[in-house]
Structures are given as C-alpha cells and as structure tokens.
Amino acid sequence: MVIMGSVAFNLEQNVEKILNGEGMEVTGIDSAPEQIKPVALKKTVCYIVSAVIFNSKKEVLMVQEAKQGCYGSWYLPAGRMEMGESIEEAMKREVLEESGLECQPTTLILVQEQGPQWVRFTFLAEVTGGTLKTKAQADAESLQACWWDRESPLPLRGQDILSLIESGLRYREKPWFPAVLPLDLPCPVVCQRVVLTFAAGIYVWLLVSNGPEGSNAVSSGSSSSSSSIQEAERGKKKSEADMTEAHLPVSLSTKTHTAMWAAQRLVQECMPSRYYDLDVNTHGLLGVQHNGRVPGKTDGLCFNTLVSLTLERRGGGPPMDMGGEPSDPPPVENGQYRWHKVNNSCLRDTILRRIRQGTTLPVVSLY
Length: 367
Known about the structure:
Layout lengths: L4 H15 L8 E2 L16 E8 L6 E5 L9 E2 L2 E3 L6 H13 L1 E13 L4 E13 L13 E5 L11 H14 L9 E2 L5 E11 L2 E7 L6 E3 L6 H4 E2 L9 H4 L6 E3 L8 H10 L7 E13 L10 E11 L25 E5 L3 H13 L5 E3 L2
Parallel strand pairs: 2-7, 6-18, 9-15, 10-16
Antiparallel strand pairs: 1-12, 2-5, 3-4, 3-8, 6-7, 10-11, 10-14, 11-17, 12-13, 15-16
C-alpha cells in the first residue's frame, strides 16, 4: 500500500523534523520482545555525564579524584545523574561540584552504552563563570581542578578520556555534525525511534509502522506503572483511518541487548527470511530525548537513530548487484510495517547526504 497526499506529506514532515534535531514524544512501542516496564534511575538504569572543556590555550579541564580506589588520579568532570535531573542539568552540576566552574554545553560529542542499564553522555562545553577549585577547597567531590596541556605528566584514572578529549578538540576546530543537545521530552523506557532507510540510486525508502504509534501504548504521566504502559493486541487489522497515523517505528531496548541492537532486532522482525543477506548500519544519533522530572515514570530515553540497510552477499562477498534500474527494498514480511518511498526530493537529498557524510552524533556500544 502506498501512502498518498497529506498522509505522505505529514510523515515526511515528521522525518524532516527528526533529521533537523527536533523530537517527538514517544506514545507507543512498536517492537517489544519482552514486557514493557518503566525504567527507574538508580534502580534499573544508570546515566553518566562527563564534560570536555577547553580554555583559550586549548588546555582541558581536569579534576583530581577524591574517591577511594582512584584517590589522587585525574579525570574529566564526570558523575552519575541524580533523580529529577535532566541530562544537561546533571552535567552542569558535576562540573560545578568537581571543578568550581559554571559552564554551558555546546553539544554532545559522544554517547556510550552498555545496554539500557548504563549510558554515558559526553558534552563539549564552555566556561561561563565560577573559579577553579583549589586544594584548600577539597571535599568528597574532588581534591582540586586544573587546566591540563595534555603533554605534562598527569596520572589519569583511565585512558578512555583521551579519545574524548581528541573528539572535543576536533569538533571545536571543525564540527562534523550539527550540535545535538538533549531534548526535554518524557519517555518511561529506553528505546529507539529508527529512521531506517534503504537507498538505490537517487531513490530512498523509509521503513514505517502502520496505524496509531506503537502496538503498545505508552503514557508517561499516569499514576502507576501498570497503567503507564498498557498492553494492546499485536497484528490488528488497520482501518483506513488508522493508516493516516503511519510513523517511524519505535523499538524497545531490552536488558539482554545493547541499546543499539534495537534496530537490528527490528529488521529481523520485519524481514526474517532475508535478515542474513542484509547489512544493518547504525550511523549515529539525530537526537536524544529525556525528561527525568517524574522519577520512576519519565526516567527513560529515546534515541532518534539514523540507520541504513544494504544488501550483502552471504559469506562476506561484495554487495549484491543492484543493476542499472532502481531496486526495490527487501520485502517486508510483517504486516505491521511497510516501506514508504520518499517523495520529497529535498528530504531524499538530506537523508543521502547525512548517511554519506557521517553527520550524526557518534554512539558506541562498549559490549
């Protein structure tokens, strides 16, 4: 079935918003292999924030650890998000507590994850006030702070921050993706809204889900966990009125899989007979949605993720020959989903450019 007229226009408008870094509230989950339960900060999920901050000499802000186990070593300002905080608020608080400086974020430069239960957000930020913490101000948060030239010997708590510092320097000198800051939108679970594309020549298709968003409705503001996520029957036949609600699919991240695996699982659900002939490429994030104002109900995250699908030969051979004519995407075998051929030439160009140029926020699985 082909989406026509205003339906296709509305869908493509929403896709354009996501590509431009905007967001949309998650009202349902399309792909959920397990029971959907709201996540809770400090109980079922842990979010870490860290900041890369430079001065005019390109020296990076470092703090000396006060915690046992890493006492006296140096690290970027970092720490765990507290209940009721936004991601940005948590970063600002950690920088102030550990370094004495106030700051303003420029952009996220990396998201790392070990599944939905551990996610780290690293910001590039700029100093806006405060004074550098001295030894005389040592407390349980840190012993002191300093500006590091990256050449003088400094005992580091971990080598992992070196790549973060390099990424911050590179972005500062020549940004390779539009600035991404967390969007204040509630979500009770950790999930992905997947912009899943298939391209052949100048033609682009998007995988869409039919009917009201999500076969499992989500309400992040209800009074109890049982009512905040309501189970609904899968595979219901969609009426013509339902079809007007076609949308980008939302896939749940589960305890046993990394957050980025959600797109792989979605493809496996939609195209099981062709799955091992397909290469699922997660290019990066277009946006991050979070709102922690209601602990236990809005502690979730939604990653708006750009993914492309290509045909591969079994056994690691070269990509399958598409031929000179436009090739159709692999057939969808799950009636809940279908391909939508993008009509808007500007949108097609934007999708192709962002895939080819790699202009997305990097996301890395640490599994």
